[in-house]
Amino acid sequence: MMMHFDLAQTAPAAPAPVPCQDASFCQRCDVRARAICGTLEEDDRAALNRLGRRVTVQAGQTVMWEGDDATIVANVIEGTLKLSASTGDGREQIVGVVYPSDFIGRPFGRSTPHSVTALTDARLCLFTRGAFDGFARTHPELGHRLLQRTLDDLDRARAWMLLLGRKNAREKIATFLLDMSHRLAGEGAGPLDSFALPLSRQQVADVLGLTIETVSRQMTDMKRAKIIDLPNRRTVEILDRDQLSCLAEAA
Amino acid sequence: MMMHFDLAQTAPAAPAPVPCQDASFCQRCDVRARAICGTLEEDDRAALNRLGRRVTVQAGQTVMWEGDDATIVANVIEGTLKLSASTGDGREQIVGVVYPSDFIGRPFGRSTPHSVTALTDARLCLFTRGAFDGFARTHPELGHRLLQRTLDDLDRARAWMLLLGRKNAREKIATFLLDMSHRLAGEGAGPLDSFALPLSRQQVADVLGLTIETVSRQMTDMKRAKIIDLPNRRTVEILDRDQLSCLAEAA
DNA sequence: GCCCCCTTTTGACAGAGGACAAGGACAGTC
DNA sequence: GACTGTCCTTGTCCTCTGTCAAAAGGGGGC
């Protein structure tokens, strides 16, 4: 928590950050339509583009530290990252998982409320917070997209509070697996019946407020009950979605 | 959850909603400076004023139901309300507590993600969501204030996720009491050492993901340890703030 | 193909907090 | 002042999940 983010330090093996001077960067961007920059006019987007730069982060690298000054924000282009908070004695809670087209960082704020760490290798479109804040203040469409996204995030966070405060281990796991099967599906696609978890067992535990042992036991139980299959460590197959939905609400 | 909010029905004894036609309503408004309408120009605020109406709700009344269509939003002028979510079998989790100058409702969304219920008698400045959304879209300052407030709410929700997922009962109670002593203090004032809880023991339990018995036991223990005093059911006095802070982090 | 390390699973046990039950305190009403 | 309903506290027991420990499994490197 004392460490400060330094791109040169935390991404030594990655290609040097590439300034987004080239307007074609955005044109070729996979997530542009879904990201907050999606509705900007052509020249506005070019202007925003000039403020940002592409960076690559490797799995495990931390992009922002909880409590640090909020100096950067970013769009996720590719990869999955976790948002996490911890107690003084090291217990960790994952407070969010972000996917391509999501926005990370704390605009209009002094300090970063939680750490951001890459779960997989990832690509970001990075802005200094000051530059982004100024741009957002003068471009209401951008602010509005950010508002809608933040309202959605808040709804999701509050739904997760119900899970953390009131659901038992079995319900938590079932809810989590169903959530993943939806979140990992592509734009407009239905929920996936087979997917690769971007999280280790320990990270699943940190999302659900459980221990790794409880996560493992519950998943094994569901496998034995033929509700899911676990062909390898990271793959989950939902065999009986109805029953899983049932477990998610009341075990 | 099937019931629909109807002012005439849920506030029968309250004075009829008063249209805010009179511009002096806002001029006399206690929370204007802190609410999202605080930075609007005089004529914009008058225009917003014409869209809204004042309503009174009594303690215990539910203003919006989880899952209902999102048809209204409001500023809280006076009183305290809870935001709550529940599982199918009736377990409840309070996902937020709102105070004067806070904003409630789900703008730019189809359905209300959680119920809103008055904990004390309250006064609201109420808008239909459609009218508010339209106004916010054409008044970026308002959208920006709403964005900042939503970002703050999201930070708070995520901090609470750490509490729900990773803290034990003693830490939860200590954190809760410290939070209350700050939130109940007036604008700019320091934390209160003595305050009246707006929540019953059951509601405290619903905020913290505990049972009423555990809340009662932990608070009694802290009283015995002379860390707090509980002169009556609703009053809390913090006798040893340092030790309470200590308990909040690691019990 | 083999080895090693790290993650995951499984087992045994303990403890925090939940469930149930009963008693006590307080506010409002008559 | 007595009554009554509601909220809160206290007691007892039990279970779910955490803790500690060890074994098993898988993937990467050689």
Helicity range of the residues of chain A?
A: 25-40%
The multimeric state of the shown protein is homodimer
Strand content of chain A: 15-25%
Q: Low-confidence spans of chain A: pLDDT under 50, at least 5 residues? A: 1-16
Which pair of chains has the greatest number of interface residues, and how are they split between the two chains? A-B, 44 and 44 residues
Count of DSSP E strands of chain A? 12
Summed up, the helix count of chain A is 9
The SSE string of chain A, one letter per element, is HEHHEEEEEEEEHHHEHHEEH
Main beta sheet strand tally, sense and closure of chain A? 5 strands, antiparallel
- Shape summary of chain A: globular
Structural class of chain A: alpha+beta
Radius of gyration of chain A: 19 Å
The N- and C-terminal alpha carbons of chain A lie at a distance of: 38 Å
Question: Could you tell me the mean pLDDT of chain A?
Answer: 88
Q: Going across the major beta sheet of chain A, what is the strand order? A: 1-2-9-4-7
Q: Summarize this, please?
A:
The structure is a homodimer of 251-residue chains. With 251 residues, chain A is α+β, with helices and mostly antiparallel strands.
Name the descriptors.
homodimer; 251 residues; five-stranded antiparallel β-sheet; four-stranded antiparallel β-sheet; 9 helices; globular; DNA-binding
